[in-house]
UniProtKB/TrEMBL annotation:
Domain of life, source organism: Bacteria
A Pfam family this chain is assigned to: Metallophos
Designated name of the protein: Calcineurin-like phosphoesterase domain-containing protein
Calcineurin-like phosphoesterase domain: residues covered: 15-211
SUPFAM superfamilies from the UniProt entry: Metallo-dependent phosphatases (SSF56300)
PANTHER family noted in UniProt: BIS(5'-NUCLEOSYL)-TETRAPHOSPHATASE PRPE [ASYMMETRICAL] (PTHR42850:SF7), METALLOPHOSPHOESTERASE (PTHR42850)
Organism: Allokutzneria multivorans
Length: 261
């Protein structure tokens, strides 16, 4: 097991705005960024390609930028531009990885919103799809920031795996603590890892939608189900303030998660 400088970034001290699962909801993302004080940059076609904060804050995305929502390409264009400009960090989510595999030509099952993402991306140039593929494949699976005080992982991460680059750490960060079984709705059975978390680092994550972002020990899930008609949530660090905006509509219906909202 090794530690990677791509994962462990003690020099990144913030302040940060950590944003939950976007899932292709560009309209809500733009509204949230503007609420947080970011200034949007648009290209000649009036498409958002960057967002910078006048006070030097940096956005951090917990993964699952793509799938289910109406504008996966728009979300990718904006977040890629923000990362290129040094205005954002992004960790990989399970949906991001699966889309990358599909774009690479791997055999994957196009469900849970993947088919819609591929259809949306097919309307864009091959060059844009290649850029998106390179971006998604290069995403770290988790980040350790601010001298180890803050950990960002899509599905969360126990203390023993903070900063570790291994198959176990990657699997946990992408999918959570699963039993390997699926429930009656076809969803993986996940264990509530945060209930046993006792680490000193704050862990911010997403993956499994909740109605409200609340603390469980020193961990908080920021996926508040925007694509299912909930909210898009940001956590301001180190201020420990929650900022959220309501979804414009229900973009994707799910038998389980949609019932939360």
């Amino acid at each position: 097991m090794t530690q990677s400088s791509r994962i462990v970034r003690p020099e990144e001290r913030g302040p940060f705005d950590v944003i939950g699962d976007v899932h292709g909801c560009q309209e809500e993302l733009l509204a949230l960024l503007e609420t947080l004080g970011y200034e949007l940059v648009r290209d000649a076609k009036d498409r958002p390609v960057d967002a910078a904060h006048p006070e030097g804050r940096k956005a951090v995305f917990v993964g699952d930028l793509v799938d289910r929502g109406p504008d996966t390409p728009g979300v990718l264009r904006l977040t890629m531009g923000m990362v290129d400009a040094g205005n954002a960090l992004v960790v990989c989510g399970n949906h991001d990885l699966k889309l990358a595999r599909a774009l690479r030509g791997d055999k994957v099952t196009a469900r849970h919103g993947l088919a819609e993402s591929l259809e949306q991306l097919a309307k864009h140039s091959e060059g844009f799809r290649e850029r998106a593929l390179d971006f998604l494949l290069d995403l770290p699976v988790h980040l350790v920031l601010d001298d180890g005080r803050l950990v960002i992982a899509h599905a969360g991460l126990p203390e023993r795996l903070h900063g570790v680059e291994s198959g176990r750490a990657k699997s946990f960060a992408l999918y959570g603590d699963t039993t390997g079984e699926t429930d009656a709705n076809g969803l993986p059975v996940r264990l509530p890892w945060a209930e046993q978390y006792r680490g000193a680092a704050t862990v911010l994550y997403g993956h499994t939608p909740v109605t409200e972002a609340t603390w469980v020990n020193n961990a908080m899930c920021l996926d508040t189900g925007c694509v299912f008609g909930g909210k898009l949530t940001a956590f301001r660090y180190p201020e420990q303030e929650i900022v959220d905006i309501a979804a414009r509509r229900v973009w994707y219906r799910h038998a389980v998660y949609g019932a939360l909202y």
